[in-house]
Design goal:
Tachylectin-2, Chain A; 2 domains; 418 residues; 36 strands; 4-stranded antiparallel β-sheet; mainly beta
Length: 418
């Protein structure tokens, strides 16, 4: 990240210089520090490789705390399984941290909502099995959680089911709402000025779509459809909702994912945007590529700008950008015929500091930051951008193809930060 700026749509780097790998995430604040939990993705196939935890004091610089729930030896979170939508809440009555997740087989035909626990926020968490309602497992998939002001915990499910959790958070005790968002997935909830808001994505696999929201005076309802909350036509700023949190000043923030199948570990990124809550509606009035959480206002990277004018869909074609400073950013275009580049950061002697995939694909064209390097010791470095010639593409359970119609990489300029 960049000097306490929250940046969307670019890879984030942690204290080790590795990409922050925490997708389908949630965020908790404890003792003045934020803890980010998410899916620890791979860059090849979609499988459960563990849930990761990162922490930050400023939402910009992230420290890797570890894999807090690793792949289990067998069972619902073992080899050959999928683990998604990890959410963590601290149970007020027990002080235990309770983790919730969606477990499935690789074909998404065996869904379960599962639970794990830890005495400390940064784990390791102990897997406890399925979450049940009236003695039966909850066989659902996309899920979220919400903790009300009085400490009551809730499980949110696709299609808009809401369950109140038991006092110890380990059982679903009451279904307080059912089917309030038919066709919706990836639920996220926030409360503002005594009113409840639910955000959902439509079901388009890894592809972004126009996410929508509802509001209600109580969790039981009545829930009223309020339409899109991001600029129309932006496909929710090219993202899918996953969670909402509050800044210390009380303002709500949207958390979303920009998925990039199959290279999710490095090329999938995050979209975090301030939310405006007015009466019965939420909105992201405009997309900010970078913003300052201290002022809750838009910001830009400050540095020396160089025009690049590189656009190619030929595999192996590349551009090398030498620079002197502490970091470099790329501004470019994502588009329906865009796809992957390999971006390598090297020292003057040619030693590779970082090598990751970066995607230049989006269903809706967008111009903005595509890459911001980790911070380096001041000196002479180089950035190599290579066209992979490999489209981002996948099929859903019905066999419908999604993804890029080409393999183009487009870089417009570089920003060198001294």
């Amino acid at each position: 990240m960049s000097g306490q700026l929250v940046m969307s749509g670019v890879p984030w780097f942690d204290d080790r210089g590795q990409t922050v790998n925490a997708h389908g995430a949630c965020l908790l604040e404890q003792d003045g520090r934020y803890y980010l939990f998410g899916e620890y993705k791979t860059d090849d196939v979609n499988r459960f490789a563990g849930f990761a935890c990162y922490s930050s004091a400023d939402l910009a610089d992230w420290r890797f705390e570890g894999i807090v729930l690793p792949q289990q030896d067998g069972g619902l979170m073992g080899p050959g399984r999928i683990g998604e939508r990890v959410k963590v809440m601290r149970c007020p009555s027990t002080g235990v941290y309770v983790m919730y997740m969606h477990s499935d087989d690789l074909r998404y035909m065996d869904p379960h909502i599962c639970v794990a626990t830890s005495d400390t926020i940064d784990g390791e968490y102990t897997f406890a099995g399925e979450l049940t309602y009236q003695g039966e497992p909850i066989r659902k998939w996309d899920m979220g959680t919400f903790q009300d002001d009085d400490g009551t915990g809730y499980l949110l499910l696709h299609e808009g089911d809401i369950y109140r959790l038991s006092e110890d958070y380990l059982v679903a005790e009451e279904r307080v709402a059912e089917g309030v968002a038919r066709g919706g997935e990836s639920p996220a909830m926030l409360k503002h000025d005594g009113r409840y808001f639910l955000m959902f994505s439509h079901k388009t696999s890894w592809e972004s779509n126009e996410n929508f929201h509802l509001s209600a005076p109580a969790l039981e309802g009545p829930w009223t459809y309020r339409g899109h909350f991001a600029p129309d036509g932006s496909l929710t700023c090219n993202s899918q909702c996953t969670f909402a949190f509050r800044l210390p000043t009380g303002e709500p923030v949207y958390m979303g994912d920009r998925w990039s199948f199959p290279h999710q570990a490095s090329a999938a990124t995050y979209v975090w945007q301030p939310l405006r809550a007015e009466d019965d509606t939420l909105s992201i009035p405009e997309f900010w590529g970078a913003w300052d959480p201290r002022t809750r206002g838009p910001a830009e990277l400050v540095g020396k700008e160089t025009e690049i004018d590189f656009s190619s869909d030929i595999a192996g074609e590349e551009i090398v950008i030498p620079f002197t400073g502490t970091r470099v950013a790329l501004v470019g275009r994502s588009r329906p015929d865009g796809s992957y580049a390999r971006v390598e950061l090297t020292r003057a002697d040619g030693t590779v500091v970082s090598s990751i995939y970066v995607t230049f694909y989006s269903k809706v064209p967008d111009s903005g930051y595509r890459y911001v390097s980790p911070v380096l010791p001041w000196g002479h470095h180089a950035l190599r951008v290579t066209v992979l010639g490999e489209p981002t593409e996948w099929s859903d359970k019905r066999g419908e193809r999604f993804g890029s119609v080409g393999t183009r990489v487009t870089v417009d300029r570089a920003v060198v930060i001294d």
